Amino acid sequence: MPEARDADQQAPPVAALPAVLSALQDPVRLEMVRRLGNAGTAVRCGALYEVINKSTATHHFKILRDAGVIERLIIDGHTCQRLRIDDLEAALPGLVPTIVAAANRARGD
Question: What is the pLDDT of residue 12?
Fold first, then answer.
C-alpha cells in the first residue's frame, strides 16, 4: 500500500510529557489513539470516531498532531492518521503502549 506524508504538514517534534498527556486526557482523543494503537498501522479518519461530527474530529486530530502523537497520511487518495510510535517511543519510552493497554482494559478489550 503506497503511503505519503501529507505534503502540507511536516510532523512537529513530540511535545513534552505534560502536553502529550493533555492531548490524551480527552476521552475522544484517547479512543482515537486506542484504535490507532490497536491497528498498528494508518487508519482512515472515519474509522477513528463515531459519536462526533467531522469538524469536531478534525479539531481532535489537530490537537493530537500538534502534540506529536499522530501524523496525517494520504494513502491511495484517502486521508488517514497514524501514530508516530517510533518518535513517541524515542521521546517518551513506554508511554503509548501503556496508555493503549490501559484504555483497552477500561473498555474490556
Answer: 77
Residue type, 29: R
Q: What is the pTM of this model?
A: 0.88
Alpha carbon of 48 to those of 1, 92, 94: distances in Å?
A: 20, 23, 22
Calpha distance 14→2 (Å, rounded): 25
Spatial distance between the Cα atoms of 109 and 101, rounded to a whole number of angstroms: 9
Q: Which long-range contacts (CB under 8 A, 24 or more apart) does 21-29 make?
A: 22/67, 23/63, 23/64, 23/66, 23/67, 23/69, 24/69, 24/99, 26/60, 26/63, 28/52, 28/56, 28/60, 29/60, 29/63, 29/64
Amino acid identity for residue 40 in this structure: G
* pLDDT tens string 46-89: 999 988 999 999 999 999 999 999 999 999 999 999 999 999 99
First to last CA, the chain: 28
- 3 state DSSP class of 79: strand
